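User: Please predict structures.

Assistant: First:
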Amino acid sequence: MLLAFAAAAAIAGQATDGRGDAAAMPRPALVLFWADWCAPCRAEMLALPEIERAVAPLPVVVVPLSNWRALPAAVDRRKIRVPDGGGWDYLAALRIPPALPAAAIVDARGVRCAMHSGGLDALRAAALVTACASIRK
């Protein structure tokens, strides 16, 4: 288990953003895993503004598991992170079952402290934040 957390921290530290620029994974953060072939994932992106308001000031990061260019144009490309090794490796490192949609809260160390499988909305996102005592100040 410790090895998985160390792997998550290592993977999470190196990424590129949706513009192709080097970008660190913010921590703590709400991480949304997304794929263009996942209909519920596409629907979740429509709720992104409400999800962001529900978890503020925690940043929201979108990790694509397929073509990130297929993300809706409304998604700010600066929120996209493609971890070194790819999104699937990051999903596995956080010990999240490979089923989409999936979301996780990672703490300041890059360790998953809560997760949700299935579509996320503002209420569920707020509940994830509440479940993570390690990110509260």
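Second:
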Amino acid sequence: MLIRIYNHFLAPKIRLARASAAARSSGLLAFQVLGGNMEPTLRLGEVALYKRQEPSSLCLGDVVTLAHQSYFEGVKVPLRIVGLAGDRVELKAGQLYLNGQVNPEPYQLTAAAESEYSRDFPCTSVPEAHAFLLGDCRDNSKDSRLLGPIPFAALVGKIVLVHPLDNPREQRPVR
């Protein structure tokens, strides 16, 4: 019973504290992934390390974190940038289209997207100083399909490393 309590409640907090201390020394910040919206890239319970970055330096495909009271009640949420200012974003049959062209997504499990919400979304234009963000696990993601394009002011930073659950002493880059 005590082992189960440790594994469920204490181990993740200890892992986050260790990662946070190590990250601060290199200018990174840490948070624990609390949802499955970015699987398989980021899994529930993993510790993500991010750096604050100017929105102008962010690129398509970057995984960012946002924390905005009106969106997620202050919880840091990881999502991927799939559209920037001036882009037109659309989902057809689970395939992402950017400015009318198919945009390959090697990180996304298209076959796993089963709901209509995940497979089809009308063309949306991204306004100035905004980004269109999607989770890699589309069926389990509250993202720009629901919230609309996200203002740059809500973006906290770019996720660069993650401590995997199966080996928390290691780090792997986020792509």
